[in-house]
Design goal:
Blueprint lengths: L12 H27 L6 H43 L3 E3 L2 E3 L1 H18 L3 H16 L2 H9 L9 E9 L4 H14 L4 E9 L4 E7 L6 H12 L4 E10 L2
Antiparallel strand pairs: 1-2, 3-5, 3-6, 4-5
Helix pairs in contact: 1-2, 1-3, 1-4, 2-3, 3-4
Length: about 240
């Protein structure tokens, strides 16, 4: 190009081989993690996990090549914070339910796999990948078993609500009865919500302050409320806290 020459340094074959091995290890381990995510149809699948692990490995290895161990430490710190922003992008909130936390955690862990590989710690990188895969596969049956168990009020922090149905004209008296019945049994009320209303009936729900309660107490409260002339029916529900 008209006499313009690029003064490129001589390539070090051993350094290039080291880079290839580090990036290749990150690629293979990223494929293993990503394949499991792809099979389960997660938002971040095979290609995303591979790019995260290879990218983290490339930056970590670049830090070593340019500045030695000090550069590695600096680059890894940026990788940790950068992947945090990437993981936040896959977390979605749908009403009271949050989705994508596991995918975000897998992305973050995949970056650790890549950082180990980029630093030349290949065995350690494989160990981290094995633990990530174990967390996503081996623990799944245990999680499913725990999730299928009915909520036990004695061992689970939960939200308790007492529901009542009444006529629209009796809402004020029903609120007073709810407060009185719950307070008399030492169950303070955080709030009373109107869950639904029509011309014929209104459903109120009292959210209790305690995160644990005795089923016997709540059954007794329900029996008392059903004797109230302003209340058509009553029940109580429990759900896990987020």
């Amino acid at each position: 190009m008209n006499g313009i020459k690029l003064d490129l340094p001589d390539a070090d074959p051993s350094a290039l081989l080291t880079t290839l091995v580090c990036l290749g290890t990150a690629f293979v381990l990223g494929c293993m993690i990503g394949l499991e995510r792809q099979i389960r149809q997660r938002n971040a699948g095979l290609r995303t996990m591979v790019l995260v692990t290879v990218g983290a490995a490339a930056f970590a290895h670049l830090g070593i090549r340019l500045w030695g161990s000090e550069g590695e430490v600096r680059v890894v710190a940026y990788i940790v914070s950068g992947i945090g922003f990437l993981g936040a992008g896959v977390i979605m909130k749908e009403g009271a339910e949050v989705r994508g936390l596991n995918t975000a955690a897998t992305l973050w862990s995949s970056a650790a796999v890549g950082a180990f590989a980029g630093a030349g710690l290949l065995i350690e990188s494989a160990m981290v990948a094995a633990f990530v895969l174990g967390g996503n596969t081996l623990l799944r049956p245990l999680v499913n078993y725990v999730n299928r168990r009915p909520i036990n009020p004695d061992e689970t922090e939960a939200s308790y609500r007492v529901h009542v149905l009444c006529a629209p004209a009796d809402v004020s008296e029903t609120r007073d009865s709810l407060y009185a019945a719950l307070e008399s049994h030492n169950y303070p009320v955080r709030d009373i919500e109107v869950l639904s209303e029509s011309e014929e009936v209104v459903e109120l729900a009292a959210l209790l302050v305690p995160t644990t309660a005795k089923a016997e107490d709540l059954d007794h409260i329900i029996a008392l409320l059903e004797k109230d002339a302003h209340i058509e029916s009553a029940t109580w529900t429990v759900s896990t806290t987020s």
